[in-house]
Design a protein that fits this description.
With about 130 residues, the chain is mainly α. The protein has two domains: about 60 residues, Winged helix-like DNA-binding domain superfamily/Winged helix DNA-binding domain (Arc Repressor Mutant, subunit A), CATH 1.10.10.10; about 35 residues, no CATH class. It has six helices and three strands. The longest helix has 16 residues.
């Protein structure tokens, strides 16, 4: 993600971006229906317009409604968000972040998931990361 960092967004703007990323696209009504303690329809429209002005969203006309989609693909946004989490909560330590993930996921990780993680670690070693 460029300097259009999601970290510069307000709580409400982040919630809207999360909704649109999870859905792929969404209208103002769909966003409003998904927001906890949703503000008015006009407030949601204003927030969508702000996100568009900041470069996070674009819209297209679908009949009589605008349908919004993110300007940055989900994979890039995920990487950017993870980098912020690493920097903010784990002092840029991937090891500490993985340890925390394993700690909170202990009981829910399948043998297949653990094997895939093991393979990712082996691959990272081979590639010199």
């Amino acid at each position: 993600m460029s300097k259009k960092e999601l970290s510069t967004l307000s709580r409400r703007e982040r919630q809207i971006m999360d909704i649109i990323y999870s859905r792929g696209t969404a209208s103002a009504t769909e966003v409003m229906e998904s927001l906890p303690d949703a503000p008015s329809y006009s407030a949601v429209r204003a927030l969508l317009r702000v996100l568009e002005e900041k470069g996070h969203l674009r819209h297209k006309l679908d009949g009589q409604r605008y349908v919004y989609s993110p300007t940055v693909e989900r994979e890039r946004a995920k990487r950017s968000a993870l980098q912020r989490v690493l920097r903010t909560f784990f002092d840029d330590s991937a090891e500490d972040a993985v340890a925390a993930l394993l700690d909170i996921s202990q009981e829910s990780l399948s043998d297949d998931e653990l094997k895939r993680m093991e393979n990712l670690i082996k691959q990272a070693r081979r590639e010199g990361r």
